[in-house]
Amino acid sequence: MATHFLGDTAVLTGRTLRHVTRSLDTILTTVITPIAMMLLFVYVFGGAIDTGPVSYVNYMLPGILLITIASGISYTAFRLFADLQGGIFERFQSMPIARSGVLWAHVLTSLAANAISLVVVVGVALLMGFRSGAGVASWLAVAGILVLFTLALTWIAVIPGLTAKTMDGASAFSYPLIFLPFISSAFVPTGTMPGPVRAFADHQPATSIVNTIRDLLTERPVGSDIWTALAWCVAILVVAYVFATMAYRRRIS
């Protein structure tokens, strides 16, 4: 059964990946907004923000990476909705394939597409002066957190992809996720924010994730932020997965 599921998922993932490679403009569209924000904040606002000994491009890159992922997962919802409208799911149901493999194919495609987008954004950051003396272990930890965050947001994206009534509705859910890092420690220290805003910023998922990635890349002690970040990612992933699978069962029943 496991071999059957893995084989079916691999074939279906290959199908969705081919759609992405044939339409690379989706990846370019995903990275344009984060790169534009990075240019704007570094070269326009960066000089007015005190980040101590850390250069501003180093300081804000973790937040830009989260925005890149939040922007990219909207295409997961878009592709799912398009498959539903095109009748692909009905055709798959008539074939002897693992039903859950259809969802996992879209999720794995999201991981691959977002990984490419993140590499492009980091490459542009390097051209803008980003530097890190972090070792292999730290970079692997950063990659692990970004993969976990991508998985969590992708399963959130599956829900509107399965339940939306229009194409615009399927992808519009990502806007609050893109905006969330702005009310966090991603671009300015939370200590500079008014009381209620600071309280929200200090206790929302993006802040602990950003702080953890930033500390890893700047070779500073991570502290308890890493456990908070992992707890947020796992909690979001579990809840989103449960609701996504429920929506999928209702849709194909």
From TrEMBL:
<keyword id="KW-1003">Cell membrane</keyword>
<dbReference type="Pfam" id="PF01061">
    <property type="entry name" value="ABC2_membrane"/>
</dbReference>
<feature type="transmembrane region" description="Helical">
    <location>
        <begin position="226"/>
        <end position="248"/>
    </location>
</feature>
<comment type="similarity">
    <text>Belongs to the ABC-2 integral membrane protein family.</text>
</comment>
<feature type="transmembrane region" description="Helical">
    <location>
        <begin position="136"/>
        <end position="158"/>
    </location>
</feature>
<feature type="transmembrane region" description="Helical">
    <location>
        <begin position="103"/>
        <end position="130"/>
    </location>
</feature>
<dbReference type="GO" id="GO:0046677">
    <property type="term" value="P:response to antibiotic"/>
</dbReference>
<keyword id="KW-0812">Transmembrane</keyword>
<keyword id="KW-0472">Membrane</keyword>
<keyword id="KW-0046">Antibiotic resistance</keyword>
<keyword id="KW-1133">Transmembrane helix</keyword>
<feature type="domain" description="ABC transmembrane type-2">
    <location>
        <begin position="25"/>
        <end position="251"/>
    </location>
</feature>
<feature type="transmembrane region" description="Helical">
    <location>
        <begin position="170"/>
        <end position="188"/>
    </location>
</feature>
<dbReference type="GO" id="GO:0043190">
    <property type="term" value="C:ATP-binding cassette (ABC) transporter complex"/>
</dbReference>
<dbReference type="GO" id="GO:0140359">
    <property type="term" value="F:ABC-type transporter activity"/>
</dbReference>
<dbReference type="InterPro" id="IPR013525">
    <property type="entry name" value="ABC2_TM"/>
</dbReference>
<dbReference type="InterPro" id="IPR051784">
    <property type="entry name" value="Nod_factor_ABC_transporter"/>
</dbReference>
<feature type="transmembrane region" description="Helical">
    <location>
        <begin position="61"/>
        <end position="82"/>
    </location>
</feature>
<protein>
    <recommendedName>
        <fullName>Transport permease protein</fullName>
    </recommendedName>
</protein>
<keyword id="KW-0813">Transport</keyword>
<dbReference type="InterPro" id="IPR000412">
    <property type="entry name" value="ABC_2_transport"/>
</dbReference>
<dbReference type="InterPro" id="IPR047817">
    <property type="entry name" value="ABC2_TM_bact-type"/>
</dbReference>
<feature type="transmembrane region" description="Helical">
    <location>
        <begin position="27"/>
        <end position="49"/>
    </location>
</feature>
